[in-house]
Amino acid sequence: MTSSFDFDGRPVRYRPGQTVGAALVADGTRSWSRSGRTRRPMGLFCGIGVCFECLLTVDGVPDVRACLAPAHEAVAVHSQDGPPSRHPSHPSPTADELAEGAP
After folding, report:
1. Is the CB of residue 91 less than 8 Å from the CB of residue 45?
2. DSSP string, 19-42
3. For 11, which DSSP code?
4. I want to staple 32 with a disulfide (CB 3.0 to 4.6 A). Which of 4, 5, 61, 79 is the partner?
5. Is 45 helix (H, G, I), strand (E, B) or coil?
6. How far apart are CA 52 and CA 71, in angstroms?
7. pTM reported for the whole predicted model
8. Residue 69 CB: number of other CB atoms within 10 A?
9. First to last CA, the chain
10. Sorting pLDDT into bands at 50, 70 and 90, what band is 73?
11. What is the DSSP letter of 71?
12. For 19-54, how does the pLDDT look when each residue is reduced to its tens digit (9 = 90+)?
């Protein structure tokens, strides 16, 4: 059984239990953001929530890691251009938090 969610205005099919990142890759989408400095394409890299290569905007919240976001029908996903936005409601972890294993 497959369902779909909206990614940049087009439907992407997913299977129950898949993350947004896994569904995008299965759909043939390899990148959905660009790095801030070099503008290189970014997408799923580690796939387990360790790196920050797969950031995108989910339901209006920027800097969501696609590899951790569960796919579901009501989710609206948009590509993200540039580095993490450092949105006040979703701050990037500090170096100390990263060293302690914060998400």
Report:
1. no
2. BHHHHHHHTT----EE-TTT--EE
3. E
4. 79
5. coil
6. 18
7. 0.77
8. 22
9. 31
10. very high
11. P
12. 999 999 999 999 999 887 888 899 999 999 998 899
